[in-house]
Known about the structure:
Layout: E1 3-6, H1 10-21, E2 26-29, H2 32-41, E3 43-47, E4 52-54, E5 57-59, E6 70-73, H3 80-87, E7 96-99, H4 106-114, E8 118-123, E9 129-132, E10 135-138, E11 145-149, H5 155-167, E12 172-174, H6 178-199, H7 203-208, H8 210-231, H9 237-247, H10 255-261, H11 272-281, H12 287-305
Parallel strand pairs: 1-2, 1-6, 2-5, 3-10, 6-7, 7-8, 11-12
Antiparallel strand pairs: 3-4, 8-11, 9-10
Amino acid sequence: xxxxxxxxxxxxxxxxxxxxxxxxxxxxxARGVHLQTLQERxxxxxxxxxxxxxxxxxxxxxxxxxxxxxxxxxxxxYDAEAAAALLQPVINPDTIVLTLQNGVDMATALQGLFGxxxxxxGATRIGSTLVAPGVIEQPTTHRLIEFxxxxxxxxxxxxxxxxxxxVAQIPTVVSANIQRSLWEKLVYIAPFSGIxxxxxxxxxxxxxxxxxxxxxxxxxxxxxxxxxxxAGVAPEIVAQTMHHLDTSGDPGDSSMAVDFQRQRRIEIxxxxxxxxxxxxxxxxxxxxxxxxxxxxxxMDRHNRQAV
Length: 307
């Protein structure tokens, strides 16, 4: 399958690198010195699952590129519209797009932006970072992709993508209800990203103190209440998620907190903002997520103005 990786940072770089290493026909879309490094020196991955280096095809635009059979869509949520416009020349009715973005709304939005092809939604909790041009660090053993179709009518497309990922030794699970799976992930990341960015404390530090742990769990419970109403997430999700956090070791830093520290734009709209918007839609109060959301919107604006 002719593949395009849109968003060649930590997430797209790692999974796209595995696809390229497996022999798949992969083109990375990148820019600046990262693009130049990919073109001249290839992609280097330092991973808990095994280091590797692979020569890759990379470019800044797709105007002269043939249609893509598969697109791995990994850009930040606030760049989705611009990235979708860049992809338009290679999207045809047979193209399959798998989005691995944060939040719960991007797959539906992309299907509307493209107007053709099939968009599948996916979720992964991998830790992976672009640490230098052409260099990815992936320190966690967890790298599972859970994905599925939006309507239940995409089984042929799901099977094709799962086969491609399996050849690349990327573990997958096909979700019978991907929208519920996305909300389960949002229950995890709303406090993980939101509180850690707001307080500049790591999730491990927040969970180790009784007071901040209580607040962490309250934000998670508030998110879960919305998730139950919107997507039928099980009431046990909070207990299960807290148990996971307590037993799986240090979860590391949230990507949103890292972006804020580096004075990059943060994905607050797709994370805590989504909880607030959907809570309003189903008339469930979300005061804790509202506080995090409104504070970080202002902080993000001032933080980037200081650059």
